[in-house]
Predict the structure.
Amino acid sequence: MSIDVQDPHRASLPRGPKGLGFAQAACVVGLLFAAVSAYWGLGGMWLVDTLPHSLEDGARAGDTVIYVAVWVAVVLKIMAAVLPLLALRPLSKPAWNRAVWVLAWAAAAVLISYGLAQTILGLLAVHGSAGADDRVWSAYLWDPWFLIFGLLVAAALVRGRHPAGRDAAPPAGPRDARSQAAGQASRRASPRRRRRPAHHRT
């Protein structure tokens, strides 16, 4: 007969914040999206023909405005990818926590609204009477990518909200958790002193 003894050190180790999985997924999706834009910003021409004709022509002609817009998009995508991870980790100052939280929600709102609107417009253009063939990739890949990115950011923020507020103290590290668990185990192992009954005077 085996007895399952739970390790107090392992049981007391802090878990990651809620919503961390969504935040990590949003970071991966956002960084991949930024990498594609950075590739185009460096002059790469692979998949440029999947863009609408106006953007494709500007990229092939080396239009400065197009390339500046691409690099601005790279910076914004990287920021939006990192913000959910920062929002779930309490920072040293409460004001920074609130600022990062607001910025992350703003990024999620912009990504969702832009991606949803552009996806709907692209699908209408592709399947409408005009039959805009240059919007196929945008309607089925690039614009939904914005939407999925924004939904992951929003899911991380919704899942990771703290009922006690964002200004709570940061969680204890692994070393603090191990020391606390060791103290609890030693207190449980030490024998309790029995109280001596009081002697009543006769």
